[in-house]
Design a protein that fits this description.
Strand 4 and strand 5 form a beta hairpin. The protein is elongated and about 70 Å long. It is built from eleven helices and five strands. The longest helix is centred in the first third of the chain and has 23 residues. The chain has two domains: about 160 residues, no CATH class; about 130 residues, Glutaredoxin (3-Layer(aba) Sandwich), CATH 3.40.30.10. Helix 1 packs antiparallel against helix 5 and helix 3 crosses helix 6. With about 300 residues, it is α/β, with parallel strands linked by helices. Strands 3-2-1-4-5 form a five-stranded mixed beta sheet.
């Protein structure tokens, strides 16, 4: 029994750390979820996402340090319950969510599956709180000062591993240098001065995230711009409607292309989004480089 009580905090700690690290790549998924659901500006969601990951890392490390009191276990319990409430919110209000992002993109989990995982963690924590004895000493090496430094380093680690970049100028320039002017063929029916042209696949996870990103940004800024979407595939009207319903994306018009023509236009870049002004492509972005600050400098309201 004593061995079990020593192992449980290690298991919970590892789960917190693994969950945090998996969220880092790509961290844009967590940025998007926090920004959309908490109605945050993009720059604040980017900072909040990294602080949240740092908190998870710190909590996981502290759980792995033997101690006399239950404070860290109670923090872990409260954090797990908080995340569980968020999952219930997703289940009720966003039933079409396929991946809650709790373990990043590498380990895909539905909100229901993640809720079951959290229930297991809660049961382990409750077992530890109920059965553990206050009869072992903390490691004296881990003084409060050292634990504070550990927490501080954990909190800053996500900012070093995946820094906050608001402009992504180099990535955007690289993309723009490879603009295929064939994309403007899709704009012939548009007379508006500004059109946002999206090349998407209804089955692509990052395409869905790009669409949700635009919905989030536009809800905050109310830009006066038409949106035209080009989807990859033939006879996919049902899939397109499902995509639009899941993402909340409003388009003024859309069309679909066979895979060969789609790839020829986009040079195989999926998803791609082009800002067309007065019949010319002035900006090309992908999911990562597409951001609110840059759009605010380009789009009119």
């Amino acid at each position: 029994m004593k061995l079990i009580k020593l192992i449980i905090p290690l298991v919970i700690g590892v789960l917190f750390i693994v969950s945090a690290v998996l969220k880092l790549y790509p961290i844009e998924m967590l940025d998007l979820d926090l920004g959309r659901h908490l109605k945050l500006p993009e720059w604040l969601s980017m900072i909040f996402a990294r602080l949240l990951i740092g908190f998870e890392i710190a909590l996981g490390l502290l759980l792995m340090i033997p101690r006399k009191n239950n404070r860290v276990l109670l923090w872990a319990l409260g954090t797990t319950l908080f995340f569980s409430v968020y999952l219930l919110y997703l289940i009720v209000y966003f039933p079409s969510v396929e991946n809650c992002g709790c373990m990043g993109m590498m380990v895909r989990m539905t909100p229901e599956e993640s809720l079951i995982k959290n229930l297991g963690i809660v049961l382990l924590i409750l077992f530890q709180l109920f059965f553990r004895k206050q009869d072992f000493m903390e490691f004296s090496f881990f003084s409060k000062r050292i634990q504070f430094v550990l927490v501080l380093i954990s909190g800053l680690t996500p900012f070093f591993l995946n820094s906050v970049e608001l402009d992504k100028i180099e990535l955007r320039q690289k993309l723009s240098d490879n603009v295929n002017q064939e994309v403007i063929k899709a704009m012939k029916s548009h007379n508006q001065n500004e059109v946002l042209l999206m090349y998407l696949s209804p089955h692509c996870v990052f395409c869905k995230m790009l669409a949700q990103k635009w919905v989030w940004f536009n809800e905050r800024n109310h830009w006066d711009v038409q949106v035209h979407a080009v989807f990859m595939g033939e006879k996919i009207d049902g899939d397109i409607q499902l995509f639009l319903g899941q993402t909340g994306l409003h388009v003024d018009s859309y069309q679909s292309l066979n895979a060969k023509e789609f790839i020829q236009r986009t040079n195989g870049s999926l998803p791609s989004v082009y800002l067309v002004q007065n019949g010319k492509v002035v900006q090309k972005d992908n999911f990562i480089s597409f951001n609110e600050k840059n759009l605010q400098g380009l789009l009119s309201r």
